[in-house]
Write a structure and sequence with these properties.
single chain, 104 residues, alpha+beta, HU Protein, Chain A, 3-stranded antiparallel β-sheet, 3 helices
């Protein structure tokens, strides 16, 4: 799903205010993702805490450190060093798991 598709689906939801425009929906979606991204950028991973964002029923995003490691160039077979990096992992919530595994 693209951002445009998400905005379109939200815009077409029934029960939303009639004066809600696609531009406003786009701004809301962008604001939500900007806030979550800013949170993960600003928060530090420490011994006592790991930054997490949980949306009940959907799942939890967790900031993770990946250490430097050795790799291999798949085209040439040359060994190379992959630098340390920071990323996010996602763990689906119980409701999302149930919906994903629902038998049709």
């Amino acid at each position: 799903m693209t951002k445009a598709e998400l905005v379109e689906k939200i815009y077409k939801k029934k029960g939303l205010p009639a004066n809600l425009t696609k531009k406003v929906v786009t701004e809301i979606v962008e604001s939500v993702f900007d806030e979550v991204a800013d949170y993960f950028v600003k928060q530090r991973i420490t011994k006592n805490s790991t930054p997490k964002f949980t949306y009940p029923g959907f799942g939890t995003f967790t900031k993770k450190k990946r250490g430097a490691r050795k790799g291999r160039n798949p085209q040439t077979g040359e060994p190379l060093k992959i630098p340390a990096s920071v990323g996010l992992s996602f763990s689906p919530g119980v409701q999302l798991k149930g919906r994903l595994n629902k038998r049709n």
